Structures are given as C-alpha cells and as structure tokens.
Amino acid sequence: MSKILVVDDHEEIRDALAALLEEEGHDVIHAENGVRGLERAVQDSPDVILLDIAMPQMDGLEVLQKLKSNVETENVAVIMVTAQGDRHAMVRAVQLGTRDYITKPWETGEVEMCVNWALKAKARADTAHGLNAQKSA
Questions:
Q1: Which domains does the chain carry?
Q2: The whole model's pTM is what?
Q3: How far is 88 from 91, CA to CA, in rounded Å?
Q4: pLDDT in tens, 48-88
Q5: SS3 of the chain
Q6: What are the tens digits of pLDDT across the range 10-59?
C-alpha cells in the first residue's frame, strides 16, 4: 500500500482526492496548507504528494521548492493539482521538479493514472538504486 499526501486548503478537494485514492488501495494523509504539508512530508515520508498551488501561508510552488531542496523529501514524486491553468505556474513547477500537473476539475481516471505512473517510476528508480548498490558492494 502506498502512502499519498494530499495538500490543499479546500477540505472538499482533499476529501474528493482521498476518496479516489483510497478506492485504489492507497493510504491517504492530509494537510490543509503548505506549512503543514512540509511538516507531514518529513514526518510521514509519503510516496507521492498531490499539491495545490494557490494556498494561504505558503503556496504550492514554494512548498515544491522546499521539498526538492530537502534531502529527506527531494526524491518524493510531487503532482501539482490546481485550478490555475497558468502557463507560467506550469513552467515553474516543471523547473522545480514536479512529476506531473493536473488542472481542476480533473478528468475521470486522471488522478489515479498520474499517481500510478509516479509510483511505477519510483519503483523503477528504487530497483535501479538497489542494483547500483549491489554492484558497488
């Protein structure tokens, strides 16, 4: 079972994402803002983070930047989930290292597909890392 962190300031969005992902068999944890999202990312070591951009206190782009600059969270797959279709925000998120970008409202199956793709990429990276560790031993 994979652990997914959902960071969004709207409870109904967090709940909707959790329902989709729990139905897929994932363990879902929540954070209501960017500050709390950073705390939960370090504390709970999620496999994937779904991150809103427009939030009070600390926006999602700042959270993403902090996640990618922290050795404890730099390799966690982050998928931006936002109502902002802003090209500049999309480009900035990619530059900062987002795995994917979903615009609200999302299409049926889109969230599940993006999360599963991120988990498969993580599994391949973990396997490759394990092989590399064996070779150097």
A1: 3-136 (3.40.50.2300)
A2: 0.91
A3: 5
A4: 999 999 998 899 999 999 999 999 999 999 999 988 667 88
A5: CCEEEEECCCHHHHHHHHHHHHHCCCEEEEECCHHHHHHHHHHHCCCEEEECCCCCCCCHHHHHHHHHCCCCCCCCEEEEEECCCCHHHHHHHHHHCCCEEEECCCCCCHHHHHHHHHHHHHHHHHHHHHHHHHHHC
A6: 999 999 999 999 999 999 999 999 999 999 999 999 999 999 999 988 99
